[in-house]
Every structure is written in C-alpha cells, then in structure tokens.
Amino acid sequence: VLEAVLVLHGVEKPDWEQAQVLLADADLLKGLNEFDRDMVPELYIRRLQTFVRNQNFRPEAVEQVSLAARSLCVWVLAVDQYCKVVSNIKFRTDKLKEAQDRVDQTVGALQAKRQNLTNMERGFNNMHASYLASKASEESMDAQRLKLLSETGRITAVTDSFRTQREEWNVELEKVHGALERVVGNSLLAAACIAYLGPLTERFRRRLLEVWMGSAEALSVDVDPHFSLFAFLSM
C-alpha cells in the first residue's frame, strides 16, 4: 500500500526505507488531502496498475493487517478511479468535438445542396418558360412537356431525398446538443461518485447522489435526471 502511495508521489522505485520516510512525515495526512489529482502523470497511473489489479489490494483485505493501511488503500483506489474517469471524460469530450465538427460539415453541405436545389428550381422555371414559348409547334411542345415532366420527377426525388437527410441530420444534431449540455454535469457526478461513494452503503449512496443532483439543479448545471454511473461509464 505504501509503495502505491509512493508511486503516486513520483517515486520510480519505491522501497521500505522510502516508505518509512513517508510515514515519518508529520504532514502526511495534510499532503494526502491536498494531493492534486488533476496533475497525476499518465505514467504514474500505468505504474499504479501493478498494485490496484492485485486482488489483495482491497480495503477489506488490507484492514485485516492495518486499519491505517486500509485508509491509504481507499485513497489510492479513489485517486486511480478519479484519474481514469478524467481520462475517459477527456477522450469522450474529444470524440464529441469530432462529432460536432462532422455535424458542422454536414450542415455546410446541406446548405450547399439547398443552394443547388434553388438553382435547379430556377432552371425548371426557365425550362417551363421555354416550353410556353415553343408551343407554336405541337410536336415540339409535346417533346418539351415530356422533358419537363421528367425533370420535375427528378427534382422531386432529389427534394424528397434532401428532406429525409435533413430530418436525420436534425435528429443527430439534437442528440449531440443534448449530450453537450449534460456532459459537464454528468462528468462531475461521475467523478464525485467514484471519489466519495466507494466506502458508503447503497442507501447513503442514493441519498448523497440525490443531494448532488439537487445542488446541480440549484446551480443551473444540467445533469441527467436518471443519472447512473454504470450507464455513464458504459457510453
């Protein structure tokens, strides 16, 4: 457990002597409380996996040996989970930005297609004017009418196709906007759940989550009213 704590403090090869120095530090608890979890390098987290993946590195197992070590074990696991959630949130935020960029490109393409459609409608009107001007010849008029009907069918098909695509893009855009509006609030709830709810019973977890969600609503922070940590991490 102490080696894991030392790893989070940047010690490359922790040993018992370094652990004793850590335990002798009068400001150990203050240092743990003020530990900046947002500045932990990814390298430290990778090294930490050697410990947290050990089945015996669990509070219930460690407390059989030392209650103090149990608290340090809980702290290490909380920092590990927090860093993983932050990393996952960053990954999802980047993906969301990529999706937003694709939506912006799609909207731009849709506007270009709308302009093309306007041009096609203009062309149709010009063709119709030509049709009215050429009805002096019955054969020529019939040929022109058939051509216009054919063009009308193609324009209608293209228009219907654009309309369907626009509806689909609008639905996707609404989904993206909904996710963007709630990503900050849901991320805060997820980080808080991982950092603080581990030692609590299910009853207190639900009560504390309700309090957080109420605070978020009071602060106008948009969160999922049916927030679930499992569902959020499974996205």
Distance between the termini: 32 Å
Total helical segments: 9
Give the uncertain stretches in residue-range form.
Answer: none
| Structural Rg | 31 Å
Give the percentage of residues in beta strands: under 5%
Estimate percent helicity: over 70%
What spatial form do the alpha-carbon principal axes imply? rod-shaped
Q: What does the main sheet amount to?
A: none
Give me the count of strands: 0
In terms of structural class, how would the helical and strand content be classed? mainly alpha
Order of H and E elements:
HHHHHHHHH
Structure write-up:
The protein is mainly alpha-helical and 235 residues long. Helix content is 79%, strand content 0%. It is rod-shaped and about 105 Å long.
Compact description:
This protein has 235 residues and is mainly α. It has 9 helices and no strands.
Topology:
Elements: H1 2-8, H2 16-24, H3 28-33, H4 42-52, H5 59-62, H6 67-133, H7 138-196, H8 202-218, H9 229-233
Helix pairs in contact: 1-6, 4-6, 6-7
Keywords:
single chain; 235 residues; mainly alpha; 9 helices; rod-shaped
